[in-house]
Amino acid sequence: MRIFAMIVSKELLSFLRSIGLVAVVLYSFTADVYIAGSGIQIKPRNVVVGYVDKTGGGVSQKILARLHQPEFKPPIAFLSQKALSNAIFNKEVMVGILFDSDFEKNYKSGKKAQINLLLDATAASQSLTTFMYLQNIVFDFQSVNFPIELKSHKLFNQNADNHSFMALTELLSIITLLIVILTAIVFVKEKEDGTWDIMLLTPVNPKIIILAKSFSQVLIVMAGVVLSLGFVLFDQFDVPLNGSFWAFMLLTFLYSVSSAGIGLFVAAVSKDVIQVAQLSIIIMMPLIFLSGAWTPVYAMHPVFQTLSLFSPLRYYIEATESIFFRGTAFIDLWPYFSGVLLLGTLLYWYGFRKIGKLF
């Protein structure tokens, strides 16, 4: 009952009185997730294409006519390769297409017809995806009788919609950062406000104080997750939930507790809020990089693949994707639950001991 009283009467009310923190949490779980889901584009979008056509039209113009909006803007003609290269250098054009004078003649005579492409690879994902689009367009003009018919079946994300994936990934990253920062701040604010000694004099077991403060932040993050799911992921992006909602919530709770352990460690070694922010970024960014949130684990160097086994976020992301997209049964999620539970217990235990030495 003491823990419950401290959580409700002190920590949650204190959080609600802090307008700045409330605004940050609401923004993170709503607007930030929405921006990540709608604003980050992996597919080509409004790509500016320039071309040099020395063939006089015909097949080359038919190829260019396949570049439709909204993926591509109307192609821009250039008189020379040098002018086109300068436009790419000045970021006026992302993709340049060069048709030499023999292109149409070689194409119609059945010889090897060559198209040269110039790509601005500083926008790597957009330009390389655009290259694949152009490659498919050119393949449509080939009259090759291939004896095998290829049919692709997209599993788990039939529409290849990256919006729902990006929004969900952003939510998981937000959970990671917020629970660490909020847990650390709730202790460090006591130091900054000069109430740390008063807290030590309260007739309450220090373990209860630590549990109440840390679990109050877990509850705040859990409420933010429900808010984000209902108003952003399900309502705005129609993210599928093929598995158990309660399995995801239980997993989120366990993961939040493990991240709260990191927050306890940060609080123990930080003197002010600025140090909390600095240490949180230093600790959490490697965990996010190693988790597979931005790069698949199997694409990493073998050393980093091994290190990723010590990131609870890796198990959390893999389990969440399995629940939402694959509809994995609860019993089959035990490897992910085990990873989060084991690492979470160790992290929270270490953080609990570290902050407990200050009492």
Automatic annotation (TrEMBL):
Protein name: ABC transporter permease
Keyword annotations from UniProtKB, A to Z: Cell membrane, Membrane, Transmembrane, Transmembrane helix, Transport
Origin superkingdom: Bacteria
Lineage, highest ranks first: Bacteria, Pseudomonadati, Campylobacterota, Epsilonproteobacteria, Campylobacterales
Location of the protein in the cell: Cell membrane
Listed Pfam families: ABC2_membrane_3 (PF12698)
PROSITE patterns reported for this sequence: ABC_TM2
Keyword Membrane included in the entry's annotation: yes
The family this protein is said to belong to: Belongs to the ABC-2 integral membrane protein family.
Transmembrane parts of this sequence: 12-29, 165-188, 208-233, 245-267, 279-299, 333-352
Principal localisation: membrane
Any one Gene Ontology molecular-function term assigned to this protein's record: ABC-type transporter activity
Membrane topology: Multi-pass membrane protein
